[in-house]
Amino acid sequence: MKVAIITDQHFGARKNSKLFHDYFLKFYNDVFFPTLEQYGITTVVDMGDTFDSRKGIDFSALSWAKTNYYDRLQDLGIKVHTIVGNHTTYYKNTNDINSVDLLLREYDNVEVYSEATEVKLGKLKTLFIPWINAENQDKTFKLIESSVCKVAMGHLELQGFRVNKQIVMEHGHDCELYSKYSKVFSGHYHTRSDNGRVYYLGNPYEMFWSDVGDRRGFTIFDTETLEHTHVDNPHRMFYNIYYEDTAHQTFDTREYANKIVRIIVRKKSNINNFEKFVDKLYASNIAELKIVENFQIQENEEFEAFESEDTLSILNRYVEEAEINLDKSVVQKLISEVYQEACEMV
Questions:
Q1: Residue 335 and residue 48: Cα distance in Å, rounded?
Q2: Could you write out the DSSP letters of every residue in 108-174?
Q3: Which one, 118, 203, 236, 262, has the greatest CB density within 10 A?
Q4: Alpha carbon distance 268, 83 (integer Å)
């Protein structure tokens, strides 16, 4: 039996941005639903953070999610197993009040898991593990230890895996807790990484500049062979363009319509030609444009930002190279959280 695994969909993200939801919809229309029909998949496992805000829901975002996702899954007769993640639980110390349970009760094909539960996917007994917090930690750890399941799926915060391309998580639980399992799949971190046993599958689409060029999508899992295959999302939101006196007349801008673009200037000999290049990009109906020309942080002449780096990677490397008597991984985690919150404010 083949099942689809998807995680960290973050419906309502970026303050329910229409730009981003139109971008999300291209993934569901062009990739997700056609693949489900191609493989005859009747079961989807959602590993958490289905909605973006744990404090509330924009009515427009909820309507979008129901129309473009849940109604379609129901019409196709697809069973959805939904695991509670940290973005879908209201309190930080309990999963009892969560958005997926409250918002999706009308769907009899959606099952919500707010506590660790053993579930059969076909003939495979699988352990579902929602967000671990102070209230459920002891009970969850006991079930992880006693379970005879070969496979676990959850929304886990484990050490040693990439949060994004720039940061490796140095806090969280030890992955040795899952050493007896053949495979462990998890959401929570938005980029793909694994150690051969634990697999962070990544979210379906780019949401921040730190995601630029990173492979995104969802996963097909075979419950009989335990093999899994990534299905990539070909659609992007963020683009870096490297300007080196690039001729605007021959530069094809069609790919950048409704995208967020950053021009990184390597060489600019003629200001008029550069302005014509920028004007052509604007004429292609880009959503947002940033221009980067100065990579030097003036306060520290020994630190140089590289043109291939985005803001978050520059900040993280600056912390790494700084002579400070602090736990740098904690500082980097705080910077990442503040940066993502700042992105959501625009």
A1: 23
A2: TTEEEESS-EEEEETTEEEEEE----TTTHHHHHHHHHH---SEEEEE--BTTSBSSSS-B--SSB-
A3: 203
A4: 51
Domain range annotation of the chain: 2-232, 238-345
Pick the CATH number of 2-232 from 3.40.50.300, 3.40.630.30, 3.60.15.10, 3.60.21.10: 3.60.21.10
Instruction: Please give the helix or strand (H or E) that residue 260 lies within, else none.
Output: strand 260-267
Phi, psi of 225 (to 5 degrees): -95, -15
Burial of 215 (0-12, 13-18, 19+ CB in 10 A): exposed
**Residue-level pLDDT at 312:** 73
pLDDT tens digits, one per residue of 154-163: 999 999 999 8
* Distance from C-alpha of 205 to C-alpha of 19, rounded to nearest angstrom: 13
Least confident of 159-173, 265-279, 325-339: 325-339
307 band by pLDDT with thresholds 50, 70 and 90: low
224: closest CA among 146, 145, 120? 120
Cα distance between residue 259 and residue 262, in whole Å: 10
pLDDT > 90? residue 300: no
Give yes or no for residue 315 having a pLDDT over 90.
no
CA 272 vs. chain centroid, Å, equals: 40
Question: What Rg value do the Cα atoms of the chain yield, rounded?
Answer: 22
The DSSP result for 318-338, as a single string, is HHHHS--SS-HHHHHHHHHHH
pTM of the model: 0.86
Q: 222 pairs with which residues across the strands?
A: 2
DSSP state of 69: I
Per DSSP, the three-state class of 218 is strand
Name 5's bridge partners: 45, 219
In the 3-class helix/strand/coil scheme, how is 268-317 assigned residue by residue?
CCCHHHHHHHHHHHHHCCCCEEEEECCCECCCCCCCECCCCCCHHHHHHH
